[in-house]
Amino acid sequence: MSASRPSRDSTQSTGTSVPLPEPTSIAGADPLGALTDLAGIGPARASKFEAIGVRTLRDLLFLAPRGLFEWPGVEAIATSRERRGARVRVRGVAVPPRLVRMGGKRSLVRITVEDESGSIEALFFNQPWMRDNVRGGETYELCGRVQRGKGGEVMLVTPRLGSSERPLPPAGYLAPRYQAPDGVSEEALAAFCRAAAEQHAGRLDEPLSERVLARFDLPELARAVLHAHRPPTRGAFEAARRRLAFEPLLAAQARLAIRRRSADRGRARPAEVSPELHAEILGRLPFTLTQAQARVVSELRRDLGRRVPMRRLLQGDVGAGKTVLGLYAAIATVEANGQAAFMAPTELLAEQHYYGLRDLLTDAGVEAALFTGSMPKAERRVVLERLARGDVQVLFGTHALFSGDVRFSRLDLAIIDEQHRFGVEQRARLAGKGEDVHLLLMTATPIPRTLALTLYGDLDVSMLEGLPPGRGSITTRWVRGQERRRISAFLEERMERGEQVYWVCPRIGADTAADEDKPASAKLASAERRHEQVLASKLAPFGVELVHGKLPADERSYRLDRFRRGEIAMLVATTVIEVGVDVSSATVIVIENAERLGLAQLHQLRGRVGRGPVDSHCLLLGNPSAEERFRVLERTRDGFELAEEDLRTRGMGDLMGLRQSGLNTEGFDPDADLDLLLAARDLVRDDDELARTYAGRGSEPLTP
Ligand code: ADP
Ligand code: MG
Questions:
Q1: Ligand 1 pocket, 321 CB below 6 A?
Q2: Which fold does the domain 275-464 belong to in CATH?
């Protein structure tokens, strides 16, 4: 599975540092030219554009506007004053402006304009020159949002100012909106985009055929770029937006298609699982597989028996029982004399997998070992030697498995748990550890099936539906106000019955000095402080420990083990416990400052409970800014439904952390453009030349 870019020398001695993604384009290397070819852009300004991913003239042309603003017409000041929150344009005679200096670079210019109907004041912060732009007695236009100050006064804050020498755009003028980088105004950026489009859009090649364009009712690239930055009508702008959104989708799908083709030529060592072995492995499990699990096992069995390297993504909700499927694949691989790597995103989870599966593996005659970044050097060395000799057959670990000194004697299978938490580079490097390894990616962060199939277009997707039998319900509640006082009694009642509790706080330490002046509502709960409070309360006798990412690994696993064994009833923790931790007698999770977490994260955290037969509770503490999210969680426990909801409310780019995975989805509208996503996949699959054209463009695909 060769990457489509030059390989990189990896001299890192430890695996703890995550490699940075390489820039997708190099300034000036693009045939359309460098950013600095454009009048008004020198090297200093060009470097500012990097913050928004714009490095070449082409990047600028393809920069997707984030919306469209239609300039309003002039209205009477008296009526505009009533339209709080609206963008208005007024015209009036200015009274001489006043400049107030507030120390340092801070200043305020106040400009009042009046027409026959009334007057309105405009405030300009830290733009002292505005005073000299305005002369009393002359006529100006102001365009901005109507706001109300603390004392009820109506004003325009930092509106656009037009004079007879420099008039504002006319009413009805359509101005694309942009996300400008620091140090460049949105206006300036818009002007550069427009100039670039006017001068260079005509030079763009059209990779798509007329037939394809007609089928999706899309404009040609050159016209789309021009209309995105200089829209003649709203309709033309929308069509341009769609066309520009199509480009990164095509690029991503093209790379996937090409990788898929080269993977098809790959040579993995087949691990055939005989019926006897199959039955033996299943017989070692402490439970009977569900129907869905059994189906996935047969998919894995088929994949592993082939020469074509397995590329399988296993999607299943939190607690659906994915680990055991990885275990099956690992044992099958070892039985065929190969080695398997089982990788988790946190040390905590890697440890849990290792300690949880070790005995079962030992009974099956399989040598397993753990390898993490925080292990003592001497211990690491021993593991590495045994691994290189082939004495260790299944290696559990974190991304420390990437370090240059980790050498397998015969790696045949890489299992990547919670794969969405790893970067593209990390996954690629793991797979690069062994030629043509079988790859099993697991994720509890489901995305709708159509999206999965297209976004992960080079993967086969297994869906693990449902949960194992015998799970109690989870009741989720947003707890606020006076109700919070009842939590302690509720926990006590539960713990008396032998149930266990997680209490999650967003930060480890107490408030820092910098937080002192923040209002109480803006402070974040500290796990250390919460732990102390519990120790001083009537809950203390049930036993409580504190767990967070800054603890030494042995101390952390010691504390977690006490919880796992039931020696303590309560664990106060940061979100380190977010993924994977599996303690079936835990029935209550309290999440503080839940407003700080996204749906996916909250769903994951909630998945720590509801793993046994007893009914569970998830108590969300958080401010109303996230009420919508809390209500969705109260309504459903189904991760797939939550994913759809996330898609709807947050948009594609943020969907369960996809942006972080490297897919460029700028400008993509999941409602309007789903057809394009599907079309992109089909087009590049059926057209080799098109796939090659697009493969060199856009962002990195999701998978190694
Ligand atoms: P996830 O899919 O979130 O990784 P796990 O693999 O951690 O889920 O499984 C959650 C729990 O369910 C574990 O305690 C596991 O032992 C248990 N489990 C998995 N499959 C079954 C099954 N078929 N029957 C009963 N319990 C199961
Ligand atoms: Mg898991």
A1: yes
A2: Rossmann fold (3.40.50)
Q: Which ligand is nearest to the CA of 357?
A: 1
Q: Could you tell me if the CB of 174 is within 6 A of ligand 1? A: no
Task: Annotate 615-639 with DSSP letters as a single string.
Answer: -EEEEE---GGGHHHHHHHHH---H
- DSSP three-state, residue 141: strand
| Ligand 1 atom 18: residue of nearest CA | 321
The model's pLDDT over 356-404, given as tens digits with 9 standing for 90+, comes to 899 999 999 999 999 988 888 999 999 999 999 999 999 999 888 877 7
pTM of structure: 0.63
State if residue 293 touches ligand 1 by the CB under 6 angstroms criterion. Answer: yes
CATH 3.80.30.20 is the classification of domain 72-168:
no
pLDDT exceeds 90 at position 352: no
Q: Which of 704, 660, 555, 670 is nearest to 242 (CA)?
A: 670
Ligand 1 contact, 468 CB (< 6 A): yes
Ligand 1 near 582 CB (within 6 A)? yes
> Checking phi first, is residue 121 left (phi over 0); if not, alpha (psi -120 to 50) or beta?
beta
Testing ligand 1's pocket by substitution, the residue of 285, 322, 323, 611 carrying the most ligand atoms inside 8 A of its CB is 323
Cβ–Cβ under 8 Å, residues 648 and 599: no
Instruction: Say if ligand 1 is within 6 A of residue 610 CB.
Output: no
Domain boundaries, given as residue ranges, for the chain: 72-168, 275-464, 474-637
Q: Which residue has a Cα nearest atom 4 of ligand 1?
A: 322
Contact 444 CB / ligand 1 (< 6 Å) = yes
- 72-168 and 474-637 share one fold: no
Identify the burial level of 534 via C-beta atoms within 10 angstroms of its C-beta, where 0-12 means exposed, 13-18 middle and 19 or more buried.
buried
CATH number of the domain at 474-637, please? 3.40.50.300
Rg of the chain, C-alpha, whole Å: 30
Examine the pLDDT at 433 and tell me if it is beyond 70.
no
Q: What is the pLDDT of residues 530-576, one digit of tens each?
A: 999 999 999 999 999 999 988 888 898 889 889 999 999 999 999 88
- Tell me which residue has its CA closest to atom 14 in ligand 1: 582
- Identify the DSSP state of 158: S
